[in-house]
Design goal:
The chain has helices spanning 28-33, 80-87, 93-97, and strands at 16-20, 23-26, 39-45, 50-56, 64-65, 70-71, 74-78, 102-109, 114-122. By secondary structure, the chain is mainly β.
Length: 135
Amino acid sequence: MLFKFEYFNPSLGTITVSIAEYGLTFSRAAVEVMSKPDYIVLAFDKEKQVIGVIPTSESEPNKIEFISKLKNGYVRINNKDFIRFLMRYFQDSSEMFTGRAIRYFSYWDEDNKALIVDLKRPLDSNDDGGNETDE
């Protein structure tokens, strides 16, 4: 029997993205799995309720600076407009996108070359995001 093991790196931890009213915070593992891109684009699949974070080039018109925001291993993207964009698709978005940051399980999708943030899978909705949102 052949297995396709994915190795856990304890120094990086779990691949998560925290979402709060100010924007997104990417864990060390999320930054690493995307290979520390200079720029990203943000996308949303409303049917599957997932955010796609896609590494891109400087020539992409919708690019967002990414790795230049690296601090203590984490990347924080302050983008209230993207949060407002997401809020359009959720009836009770006040709990989901305001107040304390909520961490979501995320994974690298090799087929789409994107980090997938599954909004149906909060790591712990009562968690403040731990060190990931500390400045």
